[in-house]
Write a structure and sequence with these properties.
Layout: E1 3-8, H1 14-26, E2 30-35, H2 40-47, E3 52-55, H3 62-67, E4 73-76, H4 86-92, E5 95-98, H5 104-119, E6 135-139, H6 143-154, E7 158-162, H7 168-173, E8 177-178, H8 182-188, E9 191-194, H9 208-211, E10 219-222, H10 231-240, E11 245-248, H11 255-262, E12 266-268, H12 278-298
Parallel strand pairs: 1-2, 1-3, 3-4, 4-5, 6-7, 6-9, 7-8, 9-10, 10-11, 11-12
Helix pairs in contact: 1-12, 5-6
This protein binds 3-phosphoglyceric acid.
3-phosphoglyceric acid is lined by residues 10, 56-57, 78-80, 103, 272, 274-275.
Amino acid sequence: MTKVLVATDKPFAKAAVDGIRNIVEGAGFELALLEKYTDVNDLYKAVADVDALIVRSDKVTKEVIEAAKNLKIVVRAGAGYDNLDLEACTQRGIVAMNTPGQNSNAVAELAIGMMIYMARNCFNPGTGSELKGKKLGIHAYGNVGKLVAKIAKGFSMEVYAFDPFVTEQQMEKEGIHTCKTAEELYSTCNFVSLHIPATAETKNSINYELLSKMPKGGCLINTARKEVINEQDMLKLLEERQDMKYATDIAASNQEELNQKFGTRVFASPKKMGAETAEANLNAGLASANQIVSFIKDGVTKFKVNK
Ligand code: 3PG
């Protein structure tokens, strides 16, 4: 019998697990669960006899792939798949997929929430500022970026975006000012919301040169990945520019130092919570299960992200 494993260090909400079970068992497959594991050896053991795997930010390394002798498909229930070793999957003929768009609204709402939190001194006493009339830069106008832009317009923000993969016509049709370069975006906007994936090209790309272009009182919101930030440059910038702020959903490697030095000018979620809503869990979880059933039964490879 086809066996599907849901391996999530950060578990899905119960309703999502129930929904996944209905889909998987309804297809005549077996479901296994490994949640909140602390030892990677538990993951190696759990994948040993499975045909399909659903994960969140859990790392699917070469070692995991090697331990999963029967694996045919791995689905990252979410958008960013930098946690999957795509090369190892391809070498073994394993299909790797993500579930684009399924948790985007949750991440977008969090990005806006973080903007308000930073504009209001992390809800501490003192005079803050409003989002209304401020310029927001969307760095990558994809599923999440588009939703952040849409919500921000409801706050009467002026929205700009930089995305070399989206045409100027499309952005303008949606009421977004197009920036031709990242430099233009950062030098124009009071807030910048990051939505780029972590790839070889983007890692460390948010550096001193770019960040120092932000106007006085600039604030960077990161609900993307910590790897895209040059952390030493961020530290230097926050030291030099007393006006700048940084909020991240993924704590920096040097977060403790940032917190100690900069107080309410910085914020990091204790654990990445962008997709931590019941709705996002359900959307991404069910999509993953459906994608697995369609692949095993009918060979459907829509949303495949490896070669
Ligand atoms: C994503 O890439 O989909 C988000 O970062 C969510 O990650 P999570 O499933 O680990 O919360």
